[in-house]
Amino acid sequence: MEGLEAESRRATAVGPRPLLTVEALTKVYPGGQRALDDVTLAVERPEVVAIIGSSGAGKSTLIRCINRLVEPTAGHIRLGELDLVGLSRRELRRARRRIGMIFQEFNLVERLTVMENVLSGRLGSVGFFASLVRRFPPQDITGAYGLLDRVGLAGYQDTRADALSGGQRQRVGIARALMQNPDLLLVDEPTASLDPKTARQIMRLIRELATERHRPALVNIHDVALAQAFSDRVIGLKSGQVVFDGPPTALTPAVLTDIYGEEDWSQTIRRSDDDEAPP
Amino acid sequence: METATAKRYPEVWRRRTPRETALGWLWTAAVAFAAAWSVSALDIEWAFFADAHVQAFDLASRMWPPRWSYLPVIVRPLIETIHIATLGTAIAVVLSVPLAFLAARNTTANELTWAIGRALLVASRSVNTVIWGLLFVAIFGPGPVAGIVAVAARSVGFLAKLVAEAIEEADRGPIEAVEATGAGTAQVYLVAILPQVMPILIGTTVYRWDINVRESSVLGFVGAGGIGLYLYASINQFAWQQVLVVLVAILVIVMASEALSAYVRARIS
Ligand SMILES: Nc1ncnc2c1ncn2[C@@H]1O[C@H](COP(=O)(O)OP(=O)(O)OP(=O)(O)O)[C@@H](O)[C@H]1O
Ligand SMILES: [Mg+2]
Fold first, then answer.
1. Is the residue at A24 inside a domain?
2. Which of A60, A104, A186, A188 to mutate to test the pocket of ligand 1 (most atoms within 8 A of CB)?
3. B167 interfacial to chain A (CB closer than 8 Å)
4. Of B183, B186, B195, the CB nearest to A111
5. Is residue A12 part of a domain?
6. How far apart are the C-alpha atoms of B93 and B247, rounded to whole Å?
């Protein structure tokens, strides 16, 4: 298949070091559910990679294995030179500081303010007492104000997270992840709890920020049209295996049938005359 | 008119099956039997019941009129009572937070630390404040210090139990998100869990303080400071008119603390 060929070309290409490599990653849950089955992929450019696949295909498992919120059963995950599998708790904490994560349910601490939530992205670099009294270095404070402005929440620093709308909460989630100044962004269904317009705005924001900062982003997403509109590359998962890896334009009805099963795909696939081209 | 194909629906519906009804009656009979048995086993002197209303009336007449001149004497011990309750509660709050993290399944380090946490919880809760008072009077000597420590000893388990339950029910999402930033375990507890249990912590603290004001008012009976000593002395001297003044004073501070506690709890969000 064309996608897999592109994949192998990538793996053998001479060029910049891959930013992220996943080798033969397998996850078997305690119940015996094989959620990931020998997944291999490489991200070697700061690109937005959309991961699509039906419910239960293993998208969340893949993303959560990378920062080891889920413990992989076998395989390797390399971030630059560092193999994340097999790190001690302490080393893992240090590695996690390099990986930002954005969640479907935003996962903000509801009773804390926007600023406290954003600054929690810097906890890895301050001590316990500093986090107790919420004392962060001046460059972190400046950075947090800058990010709030960038995600469109200037002036919201003292608002409590539970007073925000879904779209605003996700913006805080994005700012928190970027506060880590991460080498890699992991994004698990960022728009599934949002209305279509907000969903597009959030996807656009994630894409712009990844591009501005020259960082790769792995984005799980159910909406094929959104995936096509805002990604540079699409990976299709099915039953824990990579069944497609290629550019968004290569998503044909045949490919979608491969990923999701038989369906009339003509309405789903983006037409070239769509209003919004990827930036 | 009914045709052969029309569906017939039942005309009778009962909430319980006959078996459940029978079981219900059986339980009622069992409880009645247990109550009757307790009364007969207690060896109650029924003769005392016969003239109870006479005795009550007699006591009331000896209490009246209240000796208001006693009031200035008990102002200081009344304030001391509130201080005992407040300081005891404050110490309990500080100790209960780490204890709650130790006793909650999802934050304790291992089976052993969990068992230790639970044991401390049970030990604190199973001993009454007055009994703690007796113990601490033996250790610290009579006075408010023993009372403060007694209140703290009883309250720490009460607070920690409820906070530990709240920790176990805390939303996983924010915890995971803060873990994913590479924060240390203590930081995760501080930033992702503590804010989630804060309303419970504040609510139960204020509620416990209100209970402690009531309990502190009898700590004086065992020498652990506060108004209780004056109540005890007045009863021993059969100074019933003073007893009434003390009782009224206790009633007033208990009502005030209850109102304050209800107000604060209603305002937490
Ligand atoms: N904690 C778990 N314990 C056991 N099995 C799990 C667990 N989490 C996921 N699974 C199983 O692993 C498989 C992959 O799940 P995963 O959540 O990765 O799918 P997904 O592609 O993200 O689905 P969705 O689109 O619904 O989010 C599913 O069959 C699921 O039942
Ligand atoms: Mg998922």
1. no
2. A60
3. no
4. B195
5. no
6. 29
Contact at CB, A105 and B191, closer than 8 angstroms: no
| Domain residue limits at A110 | 45-69+96-260
Q: Which of A269, A272, A239 has its CA nearest to residue A255?
A: A269
- Is A187 within the bounds of a domain? yes
- Looking at residue A153, its amino acid is L
Please report, in tens digits, the pLDDT of each residue of chain A (279 residues total): 444 444 444 444 444 556 899 999 999 999 999 999 999 999 988 999 999 999 999 999 999 999 999 999 999 999 988 999 989 999 999 999 999 999 999 999 999 999 999 999 999 889 899 988 889 999 999 999 999 999 999 999 999 999 999 999 999 999 999 999 999 999 999 998 889 999 999 999 999 999 999 999 999 998 899 999 999 999 999 999 999 999 999 988 888 888 888 777 777 776 544 444 444
Number of domains in chain A: 1
Task: Find the CB nearest A97 among B173, B181, B196.
Answer: B181
Answer yes or no: pTM beyond 0.80.
yes
Q: Give the number of whichever ligand sits closest to the CA of residue A70.
A: 1
User: Hey, how many other C-beta atoms are within 10 angstroms of the C-beta on B105?
Assistant: 10
CATH number belonging to domain B71-267 = 1.10.3720.10
Cβ B119 vs Cβ B183: under 8 Å: no
A 160-199: CB under 8 A from B? 173, 176, 180
Q: Is residue A268 part of a domain?
A: no
Distance of CA A71 from the midpoint of ligand 2 (Å): 16
Tell me the CATH number at A220.
Answer: 3.40.50.300
Q: Does the predicted interface ipTM exceed a cut of 0.90?
A: no
